[in-house]
Amino acid sequence: MHLRALKRRLVATAARRYRSAGPFAYHFARGKLGGDPVFAALLARRLVPDGARILDLGCGQGLLAAWLAAAVERHRAGEWYEGWPAPPTGWSFRGIDLSRRAVARATAALGAGACVEVGDIRAVAYAPSDAVVLLDVLHYLDEPGQRAVLGRALAALAPAGVLLIRIGDGDGGLRFRVSNWVDRVVLLARGRGFAPLHCRRLRDWIGVLERLGCRTDAVPMSGATPFANVLLVARPQ
Ligand SMILES: C[S@@+](CC[C@H](N)C(=O)[O-])C[C@H]1O[C@@H](n2cnc3c(N)ncnc32)[C@H](O)[C@@H]1O
Question: 23: Cβ–Cβ under 8 A, 6 or more apart, which residues?
């Protein structure tokens, strides 16, 4: 199957789960999964291993779990792109998010196939995990909060585990300013006013992870979006 056709099937399969969670959840899932390159990259690079205990910190409406489940479904149906490895199977998913509404949407969409809880990732306990995911979340925490969350994520990670973090690169010029502006509009729309955002330059994020004992690969992850996003794939050394 052609890659573009597979991506369309994956978006449709994953988004279908959100129909029961209401029109916003459904259209948001379609838009985000269709437009954000990080979801395809997780499959293309097989960044989540088979049988992984996934801990998604700041999981929003649980799009990652819906996407991985869609990948398993399409692959089992014989619909796959030959340039991609088989999708991960046998994983379990635990998501945590501050937003009650996002967690309600995740629960409606994912059902018993996932465990999604309302909580503050600065406070809740982390279960042992093989993949800890932080997509577009860390800049909401102040710098001590970021270091504490990353330290605890690494402490929860199995020795061969992986930490998947997406950040906006503060050195990214106009593209970075666009993502920052979009984040501020989203905060305003969510009624959080002018809450501060705590962004860093890519090299500073890598430095933080190095000091925590990680080897980190930085993968550009903006795709066709106007943002300065980077996926950090960090592994304990
Ligand atoms: C930009 S969204 C990303 C959602 C999800 N990771 C994704 O990629 O679809 C950021 C999420 O982080 C959550 N968040 C921010 N601070 C948090 C905290 N301290 N504890 C838990 N969730 C938090 C927000 O509620 C929001 O759902």
Answer: none
Nearest CA to ligand 1 atom 18: 120
Question: 59 CB less than 6 Å from ligand 1?
Answer: yes
Task: Report how far ligand 1's centroid is from the alpha carbon of 18 (Å).
Answer: 18
**Pair 58, 149: CB distance under 8 Å:** no
1 C-alpha to ligand 1 centroid (Å): 34
Query: How far, in Å, is the centroid of ligand 1 from the Cα of 114?
Result: 17
pTM above 0.90, yes or no: yes
How far does residue 182's CA lie from ligand 1's centre (Å)? Answer: 14
Q: What is the pLDDT of residue 191?
A: 73
CATH number at residue 77: 3.40.50.150
Burial of residue 119, with CB atoms counted within 10 A of its CB: 0-12 exposed, 13-18 middle, 19 or more buried: middle
Total of domains in the chain: 1
In sequence order, the β-bridge partners of residue 134 are: 165
pLDDT, tens digit, for every residue of 33-78?
Answer: 999 999 999 999 999 999 999 999 999 999 999 999 999 999 999 9
pLDDT at position 180? 79
3-state class of 63 per DSSP? helix
Q: Please tell me if the CB atom of residue 102 comes closer than 6 angstroms to any atom of ligand 1.
A: yes
* 134 neighbors 149 (Cβ within 8 angstroms): yes
For residue 126, the enclosing domain spans 3-236
